[in-house]
Specification:
The protein contains 26 helices and 13 strands. α22 packs across α23. β12 and β13 form a beta hairpin. It is globular. With 795 residues, it is an alpha/beta fold.
């Protein structure tokens, strides 16, 4: 097909009016351009022939397979940490099993942020412990409707034959503590290989390796090499917990990657049926909701429209790309990518960004289109452009290794000239050879990148060349890219979305002839000069949320608009036959308007700034951490919080049990426990406050009970106003850290809570008198508990 296009291009040129050099040059440029886009109609035809539906992957029992959910993070602020932990917690709780663990693998440098990561980990552990304890109580009572279905199958079912009292006394706390401690954070020592090095070291730690042996050879990696024998991770309990566990698989994830409920079990069942595959690559579903921007919806729509082509091509080749988020078989990965101490392989170049290409070439990923991972698309055009530039830089680095003589040597020469003393000569220990299929898949992004300069060159050259059908070539190119693929994906259900996406693509991608070339140049210059100005994506997103989105768009894109406006005026004055110039320039002038408009929500409203902060209550946002046994969707408006100070808080200890903790089942003044009514209230309450761990509790010497470290939940419990207190109804906040209550037995092992402030200043101010219901009542989302005088033995 490419040869046919070249012949037609030659015939289309009026050689009598065109200079030979210009004609030859435009034939070459058109050959590159059309060759880059021809894969779209070829893929479309393949999809029409073999079908673009999702294939059901073969599955097998996976009960004995173990996996660790690996979230990778390099945090620049607390918001990054909160977002990552939220995703990891949901992924872990939604796939809870004795065979599944979760670890945040941090490369964060700032010591305060590293401490914050540990702090947030402990809070989530507390949430998990509390929810599981509540769920375990419901399971013991036979109230299975209150138990999460997946947890009932994968966690609680194995204890179905255990006596209720024995389960409560001997099993429940251990179960809750075990799963809480499988929610982990480890801090990596080195930054070698970036994200790829993070999960490589995690796999080695799982195999029992604590010291570095890979990427230590300075003759290959120069200053990028790490010291032989240095620790892989900073010492911690979580590191010890992972060491020598020999996990079968690692599910590699980014900080914004979501895992659906039960998704891990689906992926593992596919892996069990294909033990020869080193990577199981789920499909990536771009996820957004009604409150997200129109740009996010367009990106999700575009991915959905082109999904049938992905399904068809991966089914045809029985192989796919590795998207950097997938299930990796540890043993195969170590054997084929890293190597052993005695036989090092180290196939991934030490300075490469797109590491997944090398891993895919060796491990031949199996595309598991019947399951998926969730990912949030870029919120606006500007952040999309920043991400594309980063990816372009990665593709240029790849080209240096795959064409080391034709492209790599000139690049190294330029790097040495520009970087001077900073230049670090590196080479790969084991070169990777690509077969045809792997090469085609691996270089698809590079081919699309080359379309941009080829298109710009064509737009410039066509003015100096006389063509018999002037616009035939560019119409064919645009038709092949934007319209023809829709023949394989458009149907009655999605035709409106297809039309909308096509119109948006014209506005977004027509300027790519100019914007894409600038992006490639900046990526190229960053590689040769090491002058990398990285703009955090979150900072740009917050800029759009906190200011007028049209002004924010113009602030980032004004240069393109001004250049295109001036160039457009000059073209109109001095050039004829320049319709393609004008089409490109006009769409580039209005690009900030398009970026600003699509950064609004569907209701044409600006997105609200992020509510996350380092405030301790920001972790427990309403309804995100409701009991995992509650599978119904919460009514957000019905349970909206009016007072977010939530102080003074009340700490409740679920460690006490009616059956075994106290001799002769007696309560003493030094070991106060809630009544059954209070416990039931707590079990169904919303937890809006902070989640903290307790240091080991030691009861009085007469009881001689040493209790292990426990987690407690902070319940939204407050004191009524002073006017409602009288001698007959005494209210006390039990076990408040630092309080004067002589019966308090809670000793906080972490920082003091906000409840250490004066209680009198925190009395809720309400004009509505509480309506008493026994000893518990609620007013304006505030729960009141009446605690009788502890000295009265009759109470």
């Amino acid at each position: 097909m490419a040869l046919i296009c070249i012949v037609l291009n030659i015939i289309n040129i009026d050689w009598g009016k065109t200079e030979t050099a210009s004609g030859i040059l435009i034939v070459i440029v058109l050959g590159v351009l059309q060759g880059s886009v021809l894969e779209f109609p070829v893929q479309t035809i393949a999809t029409l022939l073999i079908g673009g539906e999702r294939r059901d992957n073969k599955r097998a029992p996976c009960d004995r397979l173990t996996a660790i959910l690996n979230y990778n993070l390099l945090a620049t602020g607390k918001d990054d940490i909160l977002e990552c932990f939220e995703m990891m917690y949901k992924a872990y709780v939604g796939n809870l099993s004795p065979n599944v663990s979760a670890v945040l693998l941090s490369a964060t440098n700032d010591e305060k942020l590293k401490e914050y990561e540990i702090e947030i980990r402990d809070k989530y552990r507390a949430i998990l412990y509390d929810d599981l304890y509540r769920e375990g109580q419901a399971f013991a009572r036979g109230e299975y409707q209150q138990v999460d279905r997946l947890h009932l199958e994968h966690v609680w079912a194995m204890y179905a034959d255990v006596d209720r009292n024995v389960f409560m006394a001997d099993y429940l706390e251990e179960i809750c503590d075990r799963y809480a401690r499988e929610f982990m954070v480890v801090h990596r020592v080195s930054r070698v290989l970036r994200k790829c090095g993070q999960y490589q070291d995690l796999m080695l730690l799982s195999e029992g390796e604590c010291k570095a042996y890979s990427y230590c050879d300075k003759s290959y990696y120069g200053r990028s090499a790490r010291e032989p024998g240095e620790s892989l991770f900073h010492t911690s309990e979580d590191v010890s917990n992972i060491k020598e566990r020999k996990f079968d698989y690692t599910l590699v994830l980014d900080a914004d990657t979501g895992v659906p409920r039960g998704g891990v079990f689906d992926i593992l069942s596919i892996a069990a049926a294909h033990p020869e595959r080193g990577i199981i690559q789920p499909s990536i579903k771009l996820h957004c909701d009604s409150g997200n921007t129109m740009f996010m919806h367009l990106e999700a729509m575009r991915q959905s429209i082109y999904e049938p082509m992905t399904n068809a091509i991966t089914a045809l080749f029985e192989q796919s790309s590795f998207f950097g988020k997938a299930l990796i078989k540890n043993k195969l990965y170590i054997d084929y990518v890293i190597g052993s101490k005695d036989d090092l392989i180290e196939r991934v170049p030490v300075d490469v960004l797109s590491h997944d290409t090398f891993e895919a070439a060796l491990l031949k990923p199996l595309y598991a289109g019947s399951t998926f991972l969730l990912e949030t698309p870029s919120t606006n055009y500007v952040t999309w452009n920043i991400r594309e530039r980063r990816w372009n830089r990665g593709e240029i680095l790849l080209a240096m290794y795959f064409w080391k003589n034709a492209f790599g040597k000139p690049m190294r020469w330029l790097q040495k000239k520009l970087q001077r003393s900073k230049f670090n000569k590196t080479k790969v220990r084991t070169e990777t050879k690509l077969d045809f299929v792997t090469s085609y898949i691996a270089h698809s992004a590079l081919r699309q990148m080359l379309m941009k300069p080829a298109l710009l060159l064509y737009i410039i050259l066509q003015y100096f060349v006389y063509l018999r059908n002037r616009y035939a070539s560019i119409i064919i190119v645009m038709f092949s890219v934007l319209v023809f693929p829709k023949f394989a994906t458009c149907n009655r259900e999605n035709y409106k979305f297809v039309i909308l996406e096509t119109m948006a693509s014209i506005l977004q991608f027509t300027p790519e002839a100019l914007v894409g070339c600038v992006r490639i140049w900046r990526a190229f210059y960053a590689n040769i000069s090491l002058n990398v100005k990285w703009v955090p994506q979150r900072a740009v997103e917050e800029d759009f949320k906190c200011s007028n989105p049209f002004l924010a768009s113009f602030k980032h894109l004004w240069g393109y608009s001004v250049f295109s406006l001036v160039a457009g005026v000059l073209v109109v004055i001095f050039l004829e036959r320049a319709i393609l110039f004008l089409a490109m320039l006009i769409t580039t002038v209005v690009l900030p308007m398009y970026a600003g408009l699509t950064s609004l929500t569907k209701g044409f409203k600006r997105c609200e700034p992020s509510s996350k902060s380092d405030n301790i209550n920001a972790v427990a946002v309403p309804h995100i951490y409701d009991s995992i046994g509650n599978t119904s969707e919460p009514d957000i408006e019905k349970n909206k919080i009016e007072d977010t100070s939530l102080t003074p808080n009340m700490y409740t200890n679920y460690g006490f049990d009616d059956s075994t903790e106290f001799p002769n089942n007696k309560r003493t003044q030094n070991n106060v426990s809630w009544s059954r009514d209070v416990e039931n209230m707590i079990a169904s309450s919303e937890r809006y406050g902070q989640m903290l761990s307790l240091s080991p509790l030691r009861n009085s010497d007469s009881l001689r009970v040493n209790r292990p470290k426990k987690y407690v939940s902070v319940i939204n419990v407050k004191l009524p106003k002073a006017a409602d207190k009288n001698e007959n109804n005494k209210f006390k906040a039990l076990n408040l850290p630092g309080s004067d209550n002589p019966h308090s037995h809670v000793n906080m092992s972490t920082r003091s809570s906000s409840s250490g402030s004066s209680l009198s200043s925190k009395i809720p101010n309400t004009d509505t008198a509480p309506t008493e219901n026994g000893i518990i009542w609620h007013v304006k989302n505030v729960t009141f508990i009446k605690i009788f005088n502890l000295k009265d033995s009759n109470k």
